[in-house]
Amino acid sequence: MESYTKLAIVAIVLVATLVTEPMATTGYKICGVTTDGLKTCQPAVAKNVDPLPSPTPDCCAALGDADMPCFCKYEDMLGSFNIDPKHAMELPAKCQLKKWSNFHC
Questions:
Q1: Could you give the CA distance from residue 13 to residue 3 in angstroms, rounded to a whole number?
Q2: Cis omega before residue 51 (within 30°)?
Q3: Residue 35: closest CA among 25, 48, 45
Q4: Which residue of 20, 25, 44, 60 is 20 to 30 Å from 93, comparing CA positions?
Q5: Phi and psi at residue 66, to the nearest 5°
């Protein structure tokens, strides 16, 4: 019984390490984009900024695997994060992401 308990504890620690390690290094994903990737896009979608900076190459790379229709679910909440939804939906075209270049919610 004691060896089974030790094995179970080792298995739990291993699983916890495997699950939390990716989150610790890149954040978690929202609609296919890591939170760190989303942060690189924030200056290009900020509210009340004129002139608005272009998205950075890091931002555009982060959006490469994005599920843009998924972001439509969050459109109403973006303002509370100082994000202009209109600017956010313009990112695929600005990043020349052909798959989503004509995307609209």
A1: 15
A2: yes
A3: 25
A4: 25
A5: -70, 150
Q: Which amino acid is at 72?
A: C
The Cβ-side half-sphere exposure at 92, using a 13 Å CA radius, reads 19
> Angle at Cα 16 formed by Cα 15 and Cα 20, nearest 5°?
120
Six-digit token pair at 32? 């296919």
- pTM of the predicted model as reported, rounded to 2 decimal places: 0.69
Contact 55, 91 (CB under 8 A): yes
Separation between Cα atoms, residue 19 and residue 101, nearest integer Å: 34
Question: Would you say 65 and 100 are in contact if contact means Cβ atoms under 8 Å apart?
Answer: no
pLDDT band at 6 (very low <50, low <70, confident <90, very high): very low
